Amino acid sequence: MIAAVVSGFRRLFRENHRNRRADPRDDLASVIANAKINGDYLPEHDATSYYMIVATAGHDTTSSSTAGAVWGLAENPDEFAKVKANPS
Length: 88
Ligand code: HEM
Prior knowledge:
Strand 1 (36-37) and strand 2 form a beta hairpin. The protein has four helices and two strands. The mean pLDDT is 94. It has one domain (2-85). It is mainly alpha-helical. It binds protoporphyrin IX containing FE. Protoporphyrin IX containing FE (HEM) is lined by residues 53-54, 57-58, 61-62, 65.
């Protein structure tokens, strides 16, 4: 099961990698796809591994901390009122 998910991710990122190499945009994926070390592009396996790190490190963390924050504010209306009064 996990192997299927990981290979699905790798296939997705490989396609994305080739698209970003062919048509770079103003995004992190294009930076990774066009990065060079000593004049050589990053090997595709290394580049897709970077996409995997950013996707996993960047998704679970932000989604869980956002969910935790909303839950905390829902359970503490006084704190929620403070945030609404002063979002900064
Ligand atoms: C609330 C959001 C986040 C939290 C709480 C968080 C927390 C952390 C922590 C604690 C580490 C250190 C892990 C260790 O050394 O064992 C780490 C590393 C890392 N995080 Fe985050 N992170 C968050 C969001 C993100 C986002 C949005 C990205 C990317 C888009 C990201 C990418 C990374 C990467 C690539 C590393 C490894 C850095 C390295 O080893 O050089 N994180 N994060």
